[in-house]
Amino acid sequence: MTEWDIKKLRILRTLADRGTVTATAEALHMTPSAVSQQLTNLARQLGVPLLEAQGRRVRLTDAAHLVLRHAEAVFAQLERADAELAGYLAGEAGEVRIGAFSTAVPVLVVPAVAALRHSHPGVEVRVRETEAAQVYELLAAGAVDLALSLAAHAPTARDPRFTRITLMEDPLDVALPPGHPLAAAPALRLADLSGDPWIYGGSGPWQEIARNACEAAGFVPEQAHSASGWTAILAMVEAGMGVALVPRMVSSRASGVAVRVLAHDRPTRHVLAATRSGGEAAPAVSRVLAALREVAARRTP
């Protein structure tokens, strides 16, 4: 029977994720030579070539991809086994490491942690604020147990490494300068703001969300300014430099600007939680997920 070495399989999966031996070694706190040696030993154990030279780099062979497809099922089952053992040994105690994007921390994570302190004080939560696009790297590497992200940043639902849980819809509102002529209008459409200067991110999904929403309303927005943080965007709106689409998670806490709910053409983003496949069954992780769902349900419009 073929010998399957879990430790070496994890090294192979990390190489598939990171792309180079050097990056794999950094992620696993190993030396590049140790990574190469472990993968050579794994290839010998399995009896198939796993790597082939591609210039100064290496790439995974078809056999390596076949091995990884089966290994993902093994890893998921091991996560479930770890979860059951954790529940048996620790009951409802345990540590859960959460990686979350910035706006989710005060709106979802902090209230959930506060609730857990009263209901399940044995569950310790450690929070790590991170970019939504990077949190899945941390989850795959085992640096966090639970990831909060936007659907726009999440891997496909068919990715076998992760279990995705939809937490909430987050509608987008319009932020206007306090003295804007439409700040007190009885009803507001995006098209009413087609002649205004707009403020939104310079690149990436947020730029696409803003542009697509405006284009669906029948106009191409004039981007007057760009910023990556909501504090900067709202400060520019307050100063009368333009208008902006702002997630409800942000607009509900905004001050100094006129926030208007769109009656029509209202775009929405989706907030997800994710675990490594099988990890959602861990008692402590399950408790944290339940607390996050309760907070999200109270915020759902």
Automatic annotation (TrEMBL):
PANTHER family: LYSR SUBSTRATE-BINDING, TRANSCRIPTIONAL DUAL REGULATOR HCAR-RELATED
Species: Streptomyces flavotricini
Name the UniProt record assigns to this protein: LysR family transcriptional regulator
Family as reported in the entry's similarity comment: Belongs to the LysR transcriptional regulatory family.
Residue ranges constituting the HTH lysR-type domain according to the UniProt record: 4-61
Keywords: DNA-binding, Transcription, Transcription regulation
Superkingdom assignment: Bacteria
